Amino acid sequence: MFLNEKERDETIWACRFCMMCQTADRVGEIICNESYTPRGRGAIIHSLEKGLLVWNEDIADIMYTTLNDGRLQEWCVGNYDHEELIIDTRAKLFAKNLVPEDIRQFLLQLRNRFTNHERLINHLKSAQLSPDASANTLLYIGRDVTPEWMGTLTTFAQFLKTAGVRFNILPQEPLSGYEFYQAGDFDSAAACSKTLATAIKNTGSTHVMVLEADCFRMLTTRTKRFGGDTSGLQVEHFTTTIRRLAEENKLPIKHLAEATTVTFQDPCNLARYCGNTEDPRKILSLLDAELIEMDPAGKLAYCCGGGGLLPVHRPEVAREAAAMRCREAAETKADYLVTACMGCHQMLTHGCRKDDQLAPPQLIHLIDLVARAVAS
């Protein structure tokens, strides 16, 4: 859908011959099988196009065993969009009814689903942080709020109150459609995109703050292309919100009380697909935290293991990718591994639990780290 025929043909041609990004592909590194590398996938797609291979469950396994995190295109000297090529191939598998059963069941649970935020709204009311239905700003959360995250979201709501920002929350929040898009189910992605855009417009809000990077990517780069009307909406990731409020002197961020070293996990959808690596680091500098970058970091940072629906289809590979990233974090010897994505935080929590010689830094969400400085 997002590659035209010429771009698609050129990407297949390039990927089937070139091995330059082999070292950039974490799945290929873990599985150690050429079929699960960018060049292997490119050769398979070419053979499928030429009728040299048959579309089957083995092909589906290969195409759904990938992180699809944008790192390959970032690495590629020709800027070929291998990740979008994989999504295009997944769409063909979807049309041929060859989607792996675990992916099918996962999507079935999501179809026609809304996220109920009544418990969160009641919790905020009890904390004197009630959402305001007439507010011009909408806070889009983008996931279920488990007890683990209730405190983090309450903290962010307190930031907004301190800064004088009135905000609304949708009690029944439509999905962004990101998972359907990644799976190649474009019809469901389009349905979600239109439903969400309509729900936002119906609130009267024109400013949308987004907590999750995958939802931010959808709303800024995909929702409109799937038919959702986002005209007149200003969409902002929460890291941009915090930085902006701090620079406007509306959110008083002080230095952390103690000298602190941190390393930061860039969310793939924020750093690569949306090009924002600066705002989280600016916030860390406002805290006077010493940033020790993992190698690699920024736009070339490795995925946490949660990309491309890999935890749904091959959870053991996703966990190993998370563990590898935790080892890279441990090598920095930083006090904290800071995340700006609840999905990343969840994957790295599992990855850092694996026994290893290096003790990883303590995981903390950026909002919770900022809270220590606001309160100090």
UniProtKB/TrEMBL annotation:
It holds the Pfam family CCG. InterPro entries: Cys_rich_dom, HdrC_iron-sulfur_subunit. Keywords: 4Fe-4S, Iron, Iron-sulfur, Metal-binding, Oxidoreductase. Coiled coil: none annotated. Residues 262-348 form the Cysteine-rich domain. One of its GO terms (molecular function) is oxidoreductase activity. GO terms for cellular component: plasma membrane. This is Fe-S oxidoreductase.
